User: What shape does this take?
Amino acid sequence: MGYRRFCTDIMESTTELTFALVVRIQETQETLGGGYVTVIKPPTIPLTDALLEKALDDAVALIVRKGNDALPRDKARIRAEYALKPKEDTGAGRVLREMARVKDNADRRPA
Amino acid sequence: MGVISLNGQTYVVGPIDMTWVPRQSPAYRTQGTQSRGNDPSMNHFLHRSFPWGIGWSRIKREIGRGVGGLLDSTCWTALGPVTLGKLQEVQSHAANADHWKKAVNFKSDLWGLFERDFSAANVTDIVSRKFGATSDDWTGGGQIRAANDGGDPNATGIRGFDLGVHKGSLFVLCSGAPLPAGATAEEFVYGVASSAAGATWADAGLIGWPDSATTNRYLTSTITRRNDFNDDMGRLLSFGNVLLAAIYRHPSSTDGTGLIEVLSSTDSGANWASDVTIPASDGPKAFVDWVTIGGVRSPVLVIPDGVYSIDYTNNTFALIYALDGDPNTGRWAEVGNDGSLYVGLGSGSILRLTIREADNLDVMVIGPPGDGLVTAKQGRANYILKTPSEWLLVAYGGHAASRNASIFMIDTSVILTDPETGKRFMPWHHMYQDGTANLDIVALAYSTEDDATPRLHFAVEGAAASVNSHIEEPFVNPKQSTTVKYQATSILRLPDDDLGDPQATTTILDSIVDADDLSVDTTGQYITLRYGLNGASDTTTTLGNFLSGIESLAFGASSQGVADSRIGINLLFTRDATNTNRPLLNEFGLEAYGFRPSLRRWSMRVDIKATAEGDSKPNKVANENLNETVIENLVAVAVSSTLVLFQDSEATPTTVRVRVPPDAPPVFHLEVIGSTDATRGYRTGTCDLVLEQAL
Assistant: This one.
């Protein structure tokens, strides 16, 4: 059994990368839950693919365990807060989106 | 004795007998039932019923084309006897429910989605209302969403694009994210709202729904600040456990690039996944539960560019059938109760796509049938609605001046084959035609709510509000209900009838009906016959009225008949002031006979000797007696492969054939007499000729 990950509403500031994550079971398309993930950018190094993948896996694991209660879902507040922050586009959001689109993620089920 | 001219040669003849050429063999029956078809003296051109529906401009009786069809009709012709069209009853729907978008059956009511007319003088919103049969009105419900830009809400608009039922709730796909009052503008993003009972609405576009006012502005002010019915920006589909939405990222919007995005939710809108994006010429036209090209059940999206199956498991889409890109193509395409997908084209045709087995797509144009619709009815499909029975309803036409919107009933249980072209069609029957040109019928709904009376609901577009109406008992046989209401008048236009031979004249003597419930005079129910001959308007001449006791009308002055090659019939049905009264027509016919120009036949005996000695004898041929010359001339005429000229009086010469097959070739009665040079005699005598007009 694997999970499908759908990342949308990606918002990047100079200090954070925030996005909406919805997780489904690959085989049945049952939705396990969703919410907004915020990744704190490391102060001295860029957000690498490995870091993004780790953050994504951790968030998926949270949603698998707690469903819609795992992550904040108040998108109006999150967007309003983001609007006040200094913006940055490092390309991490696009990487994240493509990373989540990987179809064959059956082996990515968190332990 | 007399003189004639034949093929330029003069002959002396005896008495001439002139008779008439028999042209049609009489019919007779050696077994079975004696019927009116056995009457050799009269043809009966009958219209028993009209199962072919409208769209047939010409009856070609030799091949049966158009028989059973109609040029046009506003009558009821679909089932049972022909009668007046069924009456529409106007519904009331007070503001803010101005423009009706769609309605669905939900929890024992028919619920409608309405838009408030956009105006800078008030805050526009979208609302739900339910139909009440007691007062024929739309009431109750509640506000789904209101325009709100945080500044002047009057200046912004809001739209409703689709309404559906999913997992026990109503869902609406609309514009405008439900941000708190005073927040930044959300006018140009899409939203989804749901309601468990129809009155109180909540946001159903939660996590994953693209409603960011900074990155998902996919609509334009042109779209959001008007109420055009053909702004096909979004569609919903309930597909088992999954709710799918297709939204158009309008290329003129801030963040749109002309793609249609398909999203899905398996938890009633709590979480959404973006499945696929498809390049499109315009927004999604229909989202239906159908099959892939492999015959597997699937969500299927109809856009102007094609029909696509959507695989939300693997986030892919596959083209089933390419369309033409016309923004009016595919609007509210529908899966009929025969399992086929019906798609209207912007050009006016309606396609029927059928997949019964894997990789086997059958495409058929179901109409308009035959020769097409009359001018007033022409256009394209705006809305296609299936019903539980065989009838597929189509809102059609009305898009221009002199075009009146119609609702057609298409019988999906019948496939016609045009005997002339081999094309296949389905019969189209008239259900309703709007009286005002250049207005569209924008939506249809069929429901028995809320009083168990079946109704066809529809809306005609209007400047400030749509005009909503319904027709009760829309599919009921007129003979099986006394409560159906009917229009005051309706017309039935038969195709231009060639009466078996458009090249020849037919003498039309009588028109006959088998009708019920006619009144004794024109204060009640009656049927008026109008007609036009040989292509003239079918209302050129009014023959009279069929009344109780008057079920035949004779043509011509003093009932002498009229004669022409074709006739167009226009029957006008009329009732009195009681809208449940109606005349019933079971059969209409004409009594006529084919009139062929009288062809004459002459029989005569040529006196060869007298001809050879007469004043107009032929020129002498060397070594040949003039009697022989006359004989040779007659033989030449007899074997002529073309017609010859015959003149027996001062009249104009007539073209005739001399050797009339098979029974009357010229017969010579000859004898050899005398001898002019002692080596041989010469022939003379008589020749019996039969001459016959060929044309």
